[in-house]
Design a protein that fits this description.
Order of helices and strands: EEEHEE
Strand content: 15-25%
Mean pLDDT: 76
Distance between the termini: 20 Å
Low-confidence stretches: 90-94
Number of strands: 5
Strand order of the largest sheet: 2-1-4
Structural class: mainly beta
Length: 94
């Protein structure tokens, strides 16, 4: 699936494998944080073997929490769509 959002830098997206679970509230997406170590120029060989997607690619570096002033790292509205040409294999946990 492709997770997309809009930031002050424009539209951002990442592609990730999806599992469905009744343990999640409807409308909620949980994305374990990978660091995107498969990006060009990355020199962390061990991490590059299990890169995961980089959640930071969806975050707006200019958005701040109004109370603490820290970067907003969760509660991000996203749109989820199927990626054309991707293998359709959905894991469900109901």
């Amino acid at each position: 699936m492709r997770l997309s959002t809009r930031t002050s830098q424009g539209a951002q997206h990442i592609d990730a494998q999806v599992s469905l679970s009744s343990e999640m509230m409807p409308g909620v997406v949980s994305l374990p944080h990978g660091w995107g170590h498969d990006l060009p120029g990355t020199q962390l060989q061990l991490a590059a073997q299990r890169p995961g997607v980089n959640l930071n690619a969806l975050l707006d570096e200019n958005q701040r929490d109004p109370l603490s002033g820290t970067a907003v790292l969760s509660g991000l509205p996203v749109e989820m769509v199927a990626v054309e040409g991707a293998k359709t294999k959905v894991f469900t946990h109901f």
